[in-house]
């Protein structure tokens, strides 16, 4: 089962915060995608609110996060991003549902 984290970030209203967050997220994605047992590390920006961003981190399993947390880059992320945010990051943990087989939907 694929273990997935979603993280929602909301930039503060300082003029350069959006561009700084965007650049850091792109940099982070390019680094974290290379971590062992990382399926993908996606970053996106809301189409209606440019201050809203989402990260989708996909791992082979829950224990795969350890490689992400052991990456030296991880220690640079929060100190850079947190001061640029209007509110705390909203982190959610998920297990992706298996969609490889047909199911019968109850009536």
From TrEMBL:
**InterPro entries according to UniProt:** ABM_dom, Dimeric_a/b-barrel
Q: Which Pfam families match?
A: ABM
ABM domain boundaries: 38-77
SUPFAM superfamilies given in the database record: Dimeric alpha+beta barrel (SSF54909)
**Which domain of life does the UniProt lineage start with?**
Eukaryota
Q: Which organism is it from?
A: Hyaloscypha hepaticicola
State the name under which the record lists this protein. ABM domain-containing protein
Report the PANTHER family cross-referenced here. ABM DOMAIN-CONTAINING PROTEIN, EXPRESSED PROTEIN
């Amino acid at each position: 089962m694929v273990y997935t984290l979603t993280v929602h970030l909301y930039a503060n209203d300082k003029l350069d915060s959006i561009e700084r967050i965007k650049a850091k997220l792109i940099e982070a994605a390019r680094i974290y995608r290379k971590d062992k047992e990382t399926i993908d590390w996606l970053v996106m920006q809301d189409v209606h609110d440019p201050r809203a961003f989402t990260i989708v981190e996909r791992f082979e399993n829950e224990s795969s996060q350890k490689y992400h947390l052991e990456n030296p880059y991880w220690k640079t992320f929060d100190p850079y991003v947190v001061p640029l945010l209007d509110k705390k990051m909203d982190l959610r943990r998920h297990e992706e549902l298996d969609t490889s087989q047909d199911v019968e939907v109850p009536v």
